[in-house]
Amino acid sequence: MINLFLKFKTNKLSSKFITQRNIDSSSKVLFALFTRYGDTIISLQVIKEFIEKFPKKNYLILCPKQMEPYVNKLLPGISCISFNKRNLIELLRVVKFLKKWKPEIGFNPWSNGLDSCYFISFCKYFFCYKDFVKKEKNHYQVIRKYLQLDLKEWTFETVKEVPLKRNILICPDSTDILRSMDSVEIEEVIKWMQMKDSSINITIASMHPSDILFHNKKDFIFKKNSNSSLEFIRLMNNSDQVIAVDSAPMHLALALKKETIINLKITKKEDVINSGSSFAEFKNFFKVKI
Q1: Distance of alpha carbon 232 from alpha carbon 222, whole angstroms
Q2: Which of 84, 126, 150, 174 is geometrically suited to a Cys-Cys bond with 247, CB 3.0 to 4.6 A?
Q3: In CATH, which superfamily holds the domain spanning 2-146?
Q4: Cα gap 284→193, rounded to integer Å
Q5: Total-model pTM
Q6: What is the mean pLDDT of residues 76-101?
């Protein structure tokens, strides 16, 4: 029912490229973020740059409920409305608010669905991400281009040797199984670390319970709700070192300036990592026999 409603409402939508003059003359800016976990974290980082460039505007972010804790963590003080877009009552409440608030500029970075495009259509000027031609390869640069921000020269710092820290968080999963660490690799890494230092505390944060069956520590299973997101943010905050694949936890760890060891299997670091990041590469840090 809701999908039919969105199709009807967006059938004749015509988004236009937003000019710098449009942005300069506006006072209210809306961002609708209904996309994958990792793309949301990337978008929030670049939205932060947008807000820093235009600090005097009134901002609002729309997102699913499980993403609100990440908005609050990465963009403290920015207004956020989170809701279940499949709940008709909640959706209509948001629509009523947008009609009253009357936003002027609307963006929906990395959000290709009809829902996010519908929400930004309440703006005076809006440019649906699905209509944006992506010429850049780096995920952060893509959003900078979409939001009319200056592109950054891509630089990074790799650390070849870092000592094991006290509290280590392992995030082995990506939505793409080819980017993920399997249970054998996870176990080998843990054995390697425990041989180096038996006193370290290791926590695994996974989407799949099967990844942690062999591990007798208190581990974390991701769930699609705001409480789970809050718990994971606390877990990340309390970790001294993060081991992650190409995934949202990797982007979050880098955004929070955590000491991060990255295991990139099929992706290029220059395509997925933000400019200015500092990290250690998994292949240089661990000697793991799989």
Answers
A1: 8
A2: 174
A3: Glycogen Phosphorylase B; (3.40.50.2000)
A4: 14
A5: 0.93
A6: 95
